[in-house]
Amino acid sequence: MLSTVKAARELVKQADGVPVEPSSPPTRTDWLRPPGAVGEPLFLERCTKCNDCITACPPGAIVAHPQDGTPVLFADQSPCLLCEDLPCITACGTDALLPVEGINNVRMGSATVSHRLCTAGQGCHACVSKCPTDALAMDVASLYLSVEKDACVGCGMCEMVCQTVNDHVAIRVVPSRLLAGY
Questions:
Q1: Regarding beta strands 171-175 and 109-113, do their DSSP bridges make them parallel or antiparallel, or are they unpaired?
Q2: Which tens digits make up the pLDDT trace of 123-173?
């Protein structure tokens, strides 16, 4: 009903000769900071937006935030591949990204599953096989997907895989800064 009303208003505007302004896409808040990012307030203090981590990212997963230019990842577009030597961290000269001991100690966020949308009950487990830290598990008896929060690094691989094999994305990564209340 609401979309019908909105469409009718747009039609009236066009008929009256009033130019219709294109609406800008909503600002996304689901972005992740690169591996090794310090807490959000300190990150914003230290990051100089030099783009060194963006340039150092071999798969090009790290991009500049469209509004403030700080480095971010959008899991549904290009997840972090957790490169063996984490070149993004090495490239950071301001300690906005600090070294971590192995990929299992990266903390970009945490995956959450919408079991209402999840097709695990229909036999899908594509995300489980692609998880680089084995944080996802499928209970074969009940066909129920679970996330081991301590093992999840928030790379976003599961989210991207889910969107490529399903009509509705059932698994999303909640960024660390949102989990911490920033």
A1: antiparallel
A2: 888 999 999 999 999 988 888 899 999 999 999 999 999 998 888 899 999
Q: What is the mean pLDDT of the chain?
A: 89
The string of pLDDT tens digits covering residues 4-17 is: 555 556 655 665 56
User: CA torsion, points 149, 151, 153, 156, in degrees to nearest 10?
Assistant: -80
Do residues 151 and 105 make contact, with C-beta atoms less than 8 angstroms apart? Answer: no
Residue 27: both structure tokens together? 């600002």
3-state helix, strand, coil in the chain (%, to 5): 30, 15, 55
**Euclidean distance between CA atoms 30 and 92, whole angstroms:** 23
- The Cα 53–Cα 71 span in angstroms is 7
Cα-flanking dihedrals φ and ψ of residue 154, to 5°?
80, 30
Three-class DSSP category at 11: helix
